[in-house]
């Protein structure tokens, strides 16, 4: 953990040396901009936007990304092992689209069933049961009443298993992400594997 913390801090400090005001090329630049704006505007948040905290944010982001990717891959492998027909369908799709060529990002959009399988894995065995906490900016009514400044946390697990959104939610079915022409549909209502926005 010390090595990861040290690496994240070094990444942040390296970016700090070359950062140009107003130019945001990556997440480190965005953090630096937020820090500089808070200092310039004399905001209280500037106290928390110190180099140590920003380095920790970078480390958290790296860990979260690595962990969710590894967990998703484990579920994909397990679900493929338990669904041989689906595994073969993906294999045939990959062979038909990519063949003997080196796979690149352009091929991704043509692998409709593979994308559907991954999306269904994220729905069926989501890596994040709850969204990140948000704060209500005003009193509002969304099924229940939320008062201004209330913490609101999206229950992603409940959304992924809502039978009104997903018929037979306890059944693993990549076909729910395919249209009538077997094309992948990514923007389905209720597909929120990583959160529900701001």
TrEMBL record:
Keyword terms, alphabetized: Iron, Metal-binding, Monooxygenase, Oxidoreductase
Transmembrane regions: none
Xref: InterPro entries: Cyt_P450, Cyt_P450_E_grp-I, Cyt_P450_sf, Cytochrome_P450_fam2
An example molecular function term from Gene Ontology annotations: heme binding
Record family assignment: Belongs to the cytochrome P450 family.
PANTHER family tied to this protein: CYTOCHROME P450 508A4-RELATED (PTHR24300)
Protein name: Cytochrome P450
Species of provenance: Oppiella nova
